[in-house]
């Protein structure tokens, strides 16, 4: 873990992401895996993904998921692995190089016992989980294909001793544009001038706030706003600009943010409600909203619950206590979300710690050991209790 944490692999550090992938590929090869590097087009500015596999017909086909990149760029002040007692700090120790190492050493344990012989295992370590390269149809195509060829998927984002993830919310972006009549401020609210773009935006956002609060597992975040006589966005620098005068009724507002949801049905309902709200315009105003899909939702399924049941049984046999489901609202989106619509899935099998995406990111070494043991025995139990039928089911 020290070796890979000390290699900077911020998402846009293409050479760094590939170098971390090479380190893991060398270890997987020792365990009998064949490695493939899935390249992305140059214009996407992403490193690609490591795909490793062992082919066999003994037991279920399992997909293991992790990622190689972190949120820390080459010029970040947070670059080094440090270890004091049971406390490790460093970029990616829990998100998620630590999880990748848990996966690796659980497989090493099974390999040492000869348990991997004849087993079908796919490993997919993405290179851009922290900032997925568009279009998603290309950057996640092979991951989804691997899921469709598998019976179950296990993901190694950071975890907790008593919880795992069998549902996590999806993510969508929204962009709101509001227009109004420009006039002298002394005439605002008049029949001829109307209420202006900022009042109309305030009305819309207040209603967004009210309806979102009454929908379980749904959040709606207005992340940025700009308005006045002019407003604009520079995608290259992610900078918003606006201009206006105190004595002019504002004629434009631009706002954007994200929407988190627990199912496609909830997403569709939320979008329909948002469209309805923006149509209830104040005088002399109009509004338009557009949506962009990011991550699908990982919804609760009976198959996911059964995987959690196996993990719970293993954890209690190890003396670690019971494992229950994590609250979906407690986690952000992740690569497991692309897989979950196609196959039984569980996430947060990695080590426990905290401070993800901050310069205080840390890992508990005892939790790291427990997560590795628990993963090894979880895989062993799955291999022992699942047999593939002649028809492949």
Automatic annotation (TrEMBL):
Does the record's keyword annotation contain Membrane? no
Q: Which residues form a coiled coil?
A: none
Q: Which PANTHER family match?
A: ACETYLORNITHINE DEACETYLASE, ARGE_DAPE-RELATED DEACYLASE
Q: What is this protein called?
A: M20 family metallopeptidase
InterPro entries, A to Z: ArgE/DapE_CS, Bact_exopeptidase_dim_dom, Peptidase_M20, Peptidase_M20_dimer, Peptidase_M20A
Molecular-function GO terms, alphabetical: hydrolase activity; metal ion binding
Q: Does the keyword Hydrolase apply?
A: yes
Q: What sequence ranges are listed for the domain Peptidase M20 dimerisation?
A: 166-284
Name what cofactor the protein needs.
Zn(2+)
- Pfam families, A to Z: M20_dimer, Peptidase_M20
List the keywords (alphabetical).
Answer: Hydrolase, Metal-binding, Zinc
Q: PROSITE patterns per the record? A: ARGE_DAPE_CPG2_1
Native source organism of the sequence: Emcibacter nanhaiensis
């Amino acid at each position: 873990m020290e070796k890979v944490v000390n290699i900077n692999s911020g998402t846009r550090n293409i050479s760094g992401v590939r170098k971390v992938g090479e380190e893991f590929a060398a270890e997987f090869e020792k365990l009998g895996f064949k490695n493939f590097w899935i390249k992305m087009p140059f214009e996407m500015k992403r490193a690609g993904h490591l795909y490793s596999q062992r082919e066999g017909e003994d037991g279920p086909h399992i997909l293991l998921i992790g990622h190689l990149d972190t949120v820390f760029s080459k010029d970040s002040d947070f670059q080094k692995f440090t270890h004091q007692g049971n406390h490790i700090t460093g970029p990616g120790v829990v998100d998620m190089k630590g999880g990748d190492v848990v996966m690796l050493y659980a497989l090493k344990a099974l390999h040492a016992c000869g348990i991997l012989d004849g087993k079908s295992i796919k490993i997919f370590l993405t290179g851009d989980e922290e900032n997925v390269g568009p279009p998603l149809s290309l950057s996640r195509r092979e991951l989804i294909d691997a899921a469709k060829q598998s019976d179950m998927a296990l993901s190694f984002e950071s975890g907790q001793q008593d919880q795992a993830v069998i549902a996590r919310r999806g993510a969508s972006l929204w962009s709101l544009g509001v227009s109004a009549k420009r006039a002298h401020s002394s005439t605002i609210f008049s029949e001829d001038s109307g209420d202006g773009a900022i009042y109309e935006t305030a009305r819309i956002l207040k209603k967004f706030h009210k309806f979102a609060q009454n929908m379980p597992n749904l959040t709606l975040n207005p992340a940025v706003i700009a308005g006045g006589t002019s407003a604009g966005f520079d995608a290259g620098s992610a900078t918003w600009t606006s201009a206006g005068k105190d004595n002019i009724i504002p004629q434009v507002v631009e706002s954007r943010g994200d929407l988190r949801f627990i199912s496609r049905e909830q997403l569709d309902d939320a979008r329909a409600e948002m469209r309805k709200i923006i149509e209830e315009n104040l005088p002399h105003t109009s509004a338009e909203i557009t949506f962009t899909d990011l991550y699908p939702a990982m919804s609760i399924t009976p198959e996911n619950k059964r995987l959690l049941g196996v993990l719970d049984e293993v954890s209690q046999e190890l003396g670690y206590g019971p494992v229950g489901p994590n609250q979906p609202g407690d986690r952000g989106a992740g690569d497991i979300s692309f897989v979950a619509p196609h196959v039984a899935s569980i996430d947060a099998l990695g080590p426990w710690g905290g401070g993800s995406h901050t310069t205080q990111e840390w890992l508990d070494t005892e939790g790291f050991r427990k997560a590795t043991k628990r993963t090894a025995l979880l895989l062993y139990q799955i291999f022992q209790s699942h047999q593939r039928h002649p028809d492949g089911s």
